[in-house]
Specification:
Largest sheet: none
Radius of gyration: 16 Å
Number of domains: 1
Structural class: mainly alpha
Helix content: 55-70%
Length: 107
């Protein structure tokens, strides 16, 4: 007689709120930091994004993932990197793209 053991990971519900977190928390912090202390412009970018704002967005998003899920795995780091890169490279449409992209990655 063989026994199959399965482990089901409980969903943290983070995916339901990721769009709100990305736009309301991460994007806002990136804008505040970028405008207040940002000095290093991201090269080749037509928008006025700064490295300091990008770093703040990345850090706040990573912290939010850790708080929401209770853990951060490699795919989360890659997801945060992709979302941060998209945010840094867009101007004006990032508040539409970020929730959609976040939902695709974390749902």
């Amino acid at each position: 007689m063989s026994t199959i053991i399965t482990v089901k990971r409980e969903s943290s519900g983070f995916g339901k709120y990721v769009g709100l977190i990305l736009v309301c928390v991460s994007d806002s912090m990136g804008a505040v930091v970028g405008r207040s202390v940002g000095k290093i412009r991201i090269p080749g970018n037509i928008s006025p994004r700064t490295l300091e704002g990008f770093t703040a967005f990345f850090a706040v998003t990573m912290f939010s993932v850790w708080l929401g899920k209770g853990e951060v795995v490699t795919m989360d780091v890659l997801g945060v990197a992709v979302v941060s890169g998209i945010e840094a490279g867009t101007e004006g449409i990032d508040n539409i793209i970020l929730p959609i992209l976040g939902g695709i990655i974390w749902l």
